[in-house]
Amino acid sequence: MPRPTVARIDLDAFRHNFRRARELAGDAQSMAVVKADGYGHGIEAVTSALSPDTTRFAVACIEEALAIRQAGHQQPVALLQGTHARDDLADCERLGFEPVLHNQEQLSWLGSGRSPDFWVKVNTGMNRLGFRPEELPEVMSKLQAAGRQHQVIGFVTHFARADDFDSEMTTRQTRVFEEAVAPWPGLLRSVGNSAAHFRPGQPLYEWSRPGIMLYGASPMENRTGPELGLRPAMSLEAPLITTRIVRAGESVGYGASWTAEQDTLMGMVAIGYADGYPRHAGTDTPAAVNGQRIRLIGRVSMDMLAVDLSAAPDAREGDMVELWGKTVSVDEVARHAGTIGYELLTGVTSRVPRVRE
């Protein structure tokens, strides 16, 4: 019998969170971003849950788009990194994938053979991908000369600091984007990552791109998903495999980094960094058992971690511990580990089975 460590996937949570995104998007339509295997939840599960509600998906690369087709879904799929080889364009055209065009090499590939519909990326300050605003007229002129302007769906950009209400950068990027694409008013526009949905007065134009919020984690600084009206889609759970009293003055685990100040009821949980739980989540990181919040103590090991059961003295071997989920937000755990919920959700390894509920 395998160990019962599991990631429980709540399909209704996806639907709730997508409805929340559409509510915040106003008049804009929303394409569901399901890259990175549905942010670690399983791309087939996520797309099956959202397929009745969304008319467009977005992923990073063509492999992920192919997984959506293999799952039986026929909505257009935007490829946010575009294609990585000229030969991929034929598959995109045949299968209804919409690559994002963001560099001169990709532009040169459009000069021969059949081509899919595509988006054009505008670099408004993120400085990862995209054409600078001053380059856009030449890009569009080349597309028009090649007789392919009718295949341009619209323009996209990406915000660098939409999660920070104190920063003016998103306002500046929005202004740069509007000015850059103004000469082509008939084309669609998409700027809104998850964080942008929560910025009062932020234009989302025709298409928003909710990602992390669909999974119940927060895109905003110092806010958890539940505080934003989101429901966690993953509950990461593992069993208590032993309990014992650690006597005052004794330590637990590698490095003896935690020492009991008094006799303490301790439990060992069958999960560790080999499962994707963050090694840097140390003492005082929250968890829960039987609905009662508890805390981690000491260092996370490869296959196990220790918890202080003082707040849950009735816990027994075999009880399931929630590492994050409905009682403890993944955003809280991420904060203790010095990272973000995105990394934790996408980092849960294949050793942990995903179970749909």
Automatic annotation (TrEMBL):
Enzyme Commission identifier(s): 5.1.1.1
Signal peptide interval: none
SUPFAM superfamilies: Alanine racemase C-terminal domain-like (SSF50621), PLP-binding barrel (SSF51419)
Alphabetical keyword list: Isomerase, Pyridoxal phosphate
InterPro entries the record matches: Ala_racemase, Ala_racemase/Decarboxylase_C, Ala_racemase_C, Ala_racemase_N, Ala_racemase_pyridoxalP-BS, PLP-binding_barrel
Modification sites for N6-(pyridoxal phosphate)lysine: K35
Domain called Alanine racemase C-terminal: residue spans: 233-357
Cofactor(s) needed: pyridoxal 5'-phosphate
Catalytic residue list: K35 (proton acceptor), Y254 (proton acceptor)
Catalysis performed (reactions): L-alanine = D-alanine
Pathway(s) per entry: Amino-acid biosynthesis; D-alanine biosynthesis; D-alanine from L-alanine: step 1/1
Residues bound to substrate: R128, M302
UniProt GO MF annotations: alanine racemase activity
Keyword Isomerase: yes
Top EC class for this record: isomerase
Membrane-spanning intervals of the chain: none
Function description: Catalyzes the interconversion of L-alanine and D-alanine. May also act on other amino acids.
Homology family: Belongs to the alanine racemase family.
Protein's recorded name: Alanine racemase
Taxonomic source organism: Marinobacter daepoensis
